[in-house]
Amino acid sequence: MNAEGRPDRRRNRDLYAVAAATALVAAAVVAGHAIERADGSLRVGWPPLYARWEPHWGPGTPAAVLVAAAVIAYGPPLADRLPRRALPLVGWAASAAWIFSLALVDGWRRGFAGRLTTKYEYLTVMDRFGDVPAALRGFTGHILMDAPDNWPAHVAGHPPGATLTFVALDRIGLGGGAWAAAWCVVTGASAVAAVLLALRWLASEECARRAAPFLVLAPAAVWVGVSADGYFAAVAAWAVALLAYAASRTGRLSLIAALGAGLLAGWLCYLSYGLGLFALVGAGVLLAARTVRPLPLVAAGALVVPAVFTGLGFDWWEGYRLLVERYYQGAARIRPYGYWVWANLACTALVIGPACVAGLRRALPSVRDGGARRAVALLVAAALAAVVVADVSGMSKAETERIWLPFALWLLPAAAFLPDRARRPWLAAQAAVALVLNHALVTGW
């Protein structure tokens, strides 16, 4: 993975890429504040992020600084030396610690236990799912803003699988905001393990080890804790990981993995309408493995969840049609496409951090290479393609720092292309972005 060549020139190009991304973010901030002062059409408190300016610190501050320092100091050598089976588990645990400590910067209630209990969130409708089949049959009747007992924003904006997840937690005795937040943090952090396994199976062990500290210390953790989109990102990541195993192995386990990848892909489409775009990342996996062998079982598995929901009375296509209508009943009606189509990319640059921006500059040309470099580059390019499609669609005007977490996660492995001697400085830059954002702003989700 570490073909450096002319290190000074390559390092300068890395810095130029980061400077360009910084300029994009600065332009989005300056233009966004000017537009918001002029007519309020952006409908965000601190453009381009859905946040408000409020410098603060909290009980998570010392822990976040400690986790960041530990990953910067010990992450690269530890990732290089850990046993193969331990690496994904340690990555999962370290990511959970980073996400949780960042969430607690805003305090226990505001940053963690109360995040999923606001009027926009899923937990406000638990009492309306006493009869789940009846709720599913009537789900689309409450999507529009002028519908009787219309759903809150996040319930209306997603298929019912998202809400049913929290209903299930409630039914097994894990109800309330703290348990829901814990679910999102723990599952969201597991996405790191999924990506590491996918990189191992599809590319190489070395690639997974080089990417591990950057996956852990990503600024994306600010939004994984706590939003349901972190959970969605994990489901998507495990679907891709299982597909990577199925595409790179043979035998009974690969068949089971292909079926599992399909089941998770089907579930993913009932968590968020827009995550059907993850088919592009799946295509990247198959291109990297140079096979379509798993497709029949993946397709079979992917049909199970839609069959169940359709049988219970929920019409996905009708839900999506009504969501588009509701989308333009709300803030999207006045949010200017001409600003968000490029400001969304500024949000993504903040989510993935400067190390990933520099890594993208190195990774994308490697789609022409062979071996592990090509495999990683194809995954990254596929995720970037999904971001571009989502962006130009106009269905993601603002709040993409949260909505695009599942795609952003697969841009992070680009940091594996960074040279050895620069890993700690780039990790420090990642941590600095996350800590500054989390302490200067109060994010909306």
How would you describe the overall organization of this protein?
The protein has helices at 7-39, 60-81, 86-103, 108-113, 132-137, 153-156, 160-171, 177-202, 205-216, 221-224, 228-248, 252-269, 279-289, 295-302, 304-311, 316-327, 337-363, 371-392, 400-403, 405-408, 423-440; strands at residues 51-53, 441-443. The protein has a two-stranded antiparallel ribbon with strand order 1-2. The chain is globular, with a radius of gyration of 21 Å. The two termini are 36 Å apart. It is an all-alpha fold and 445 residues long. The longest helix has 33 residues, at 7-39. Helices cover 67% and strands 1% of the residues.
Determine the N-to-C terminus distance.
36 Å
| Structural class label | mainly alpha
Described by the principal axes of the CA atoms, the overall outline is: globular
Strand-residue proportion: under 5%
Question: Major sheet, described briefly?
Answer: 2 strands, antiparallel
Strand order of the largest sheet: 1-2
**What would you report as the Rg, rounded to the nearest angstrom?**
21 Å
Considering DSSP H and I runs of 4 or more, what fraction of the residues is helical? 55-70%
Spell out the blueprint of helices and strands.
Blueprint: H1 7-39, E1 51-53, H2 60-81, H3 86-103, H4 108-113, H5 132-137, H6 153-156, H7 160-171, H8 177-202, H9 205-216, H10 221-224, H11 228-248, H12 252-269, H13 279-289, H14 295-302, H15 304-311, H16 316-327, H17 337-363, H18 371-392, H19 400-403, H20 405-408, H21 423-440, E2 441-443
Antiparallel strand pairs: 1-2
